[in-house]
Specification:
Elements (H helix, E strand, L loop, with lengths): L20 H36 L3 H29 L1 H19 L5 H8 L2 H5 L1 H14 L4 H5 L1 H9 L1 H28 L1 H11 L6 H14 L3 H10 L9 H4 L5 H24 L1 H8 L4 H29 L1 H21 L4 H15 L2 H10 L4 H13 L1 H17 L4 H20 L11
Length: 443
């Protein structure tokens, strides 16, 4: 929970319940695996899209349209998760997101048509929201932990959690390479259900964050008509005493600027994420004429490098400022992807440039997610991070529409990916510098 300078909050006289080192590390480990398997399901859809398309006889334009419509449905679900988590709590919100991942995988395995696939993949929005809920919960836990090493290097530690993204992509690629020839794409989805169920059960043992426990106490007092007592309690903890709708709160005061700027950055950067991360196999096979089998191997190598990018950006974010690390990372990624699509010849050149591009593109998100968690108060933190996280889906939708139109008009995947993905990634990095530096969470 962060102090709110614009509200004239007095100096805190109470402090939040402390979180022990063991509990902090347990929450961190579970968050890592929850995000790993959420990414696993999310990316596996994009990785298997060429195989799904072939089984239903779709052309490139149809496959791109299906992917775009899935992004539309996913955005609706992901956007709703933030306000829900601010209402029901971080712990229940985290159980909801990982459970949604399991259900999405299970239902995807019995897909009979494009319309059905679009509908069930909308549940992937719960998995996509996993990173926003993780950032919300861990930013609050790290602010009050007794583990001084984690507290001092909270950005670096969170980068290890957020680094589950490239590992999830790597796992999905390896999973498909191993099981696709044996059990087909339907079987790949079905087997993915079980690890997500295990993580959902493990999360039942986590405690709610102290900051949200205070928020629940304040709500109870206000509901009982004890508004003055609630205001005094809020002041004693040095937090904003004025209740406000979470969605409205992220567009007021000092939060407004970061909501707008980071929302635009997420929207634009989604083009790069959609094309280079989610649809990596399609871009490599159609844009660079890499075989499907080799594209899976390339994704494994590239995302192993990408994990190092998460750790690096988390480490540098603690020292150079998260906003600066995010901006420069995306600018460099855009340049590297442009070189890959225009001048790279041969597998080695493609592997190097693609891997380095993911190093900066996805790596910057380790700083971005934690940065977002630091930008909002407890009452609207999940809503703020969830809103920004969900902005990736409208961005992916627009990118998908543009790419679909370009392909339908005769453009190549390489040309479309260059103009939409590489340029979009570069521009998003420039936009990030318009955001404010985030205030530190109150200890």
């Amino acid at each position: 929970m962060s102090a709110a300078p614009e509200s004239g909050v007095t100096r805190a006289t109470n402090s939040f319940r402390r979180i022990g080192s063991r509990a902090t590390r347990k929450a961190t480990i579970i968050a890592f695996f929850a995000w790993l398997f959420a990414v696993f399901d999310f990316i596996m859809f994009g990785t298997l899209l060429p195989q799904i398309s072939a089984s239903f006889g779709w052309d490139d334009a149809t496959a791109s349209l299906v992917s775009t419509l899935v992004s539309v449905a996913t955005a609706v679900i992901a956007l709703a998760v933030g306000p829900i988590t601010d209402r029901i709590g971080r712990r229940k919100g985290m159980i909801l997101t990982v459970s949604g991942t399991a259900v999405a995988s299970a239902l995807s395995s019995v897909t009979p048509s494009a319309a059905y696939l679009i509908g069930v993949r909308s549940l992937g929005g719960l998995g996509l929201a996993e990173q926003a809920v993780n950032a919300t919960y861990l930013s609050e836990i790290y602010a009050v932990t007794d583990d001084e090493k984690i507290k001092k290097h909270r950005g670096l530690i969170y980068s290890l959690v957020q680094g589950a993204f490239p590992l999830g992509v790597l796992l999905a690629s390896a999973w498909v390479a191993i099981f696709l020839p044996v059990i087909g794409w339907r079987g790949c989805f079905l087997l993915a259900v079980f690890p997500a169920v295990v993580i959902a059960l493990m999360r039942r043992g986590l405690r709610e964050s102290p900051q949200f426990e205070l928020e629940l106490q304040l709500r109870r007092l206000r509901k009982e008509g004890r508004a003055a007592e609630a205001a005094e309690l809020a002041r004693s903890y040095g937090v904003d005493e004025r209740p406000a709708a979470p969605l409205a709160a992220i567009f007021t005061g000092q939060a407004r600027r970061n909501t707008v700027v980071l929302g635009i950055a997420w929207f634009i950067n989604a083009a790069g994420m959609q094309l280079f991360a989610v649809l990596g196999t399609t871009v490599l096979t159609e844009g660079k004429h890499v075989s499907f089998t080799n594209s899976l191997v390339l994704l494994i190598v590239a995302n192993a490098v990408g994990y190092l990018g998460y750790v690096t950006h988390g480490f540098l974010g603690d020292r150079l400022g998260r906003r600066n690390v995010i901006g420069f990372g995306w600018i460099i990624a855009g340049i590297l992807f442009a070189f890959m699509l225009t001048v790279a010849n041969g597998t080695i050149a493609v592997v190097i440039l693609y891997s380095l591009g993911l190093f900066f593109l996805t790596g910057a998100y380790s700083a971005m997610l934690f940065y977002m968690g630091e930008c909002y108060d407890t009452a609207c933190r999940a809503t703020g991070t969830g809103f920004l996280n969900a902005m990736s889906q409208p961005g992916a939708i627009v990118a998908g529409v543009i790419v679909t139109a370009m392909l339908a008009s005769g453009s190549t995947w390489a040309h479309a990916t260059l103009l939409v993905g590489a340029v979009g990634t570069f521009v998003s990095g420039v936009v990030v510098f318009g955001a404010r530096k985030a205030p530190l969470l109150q200890d």
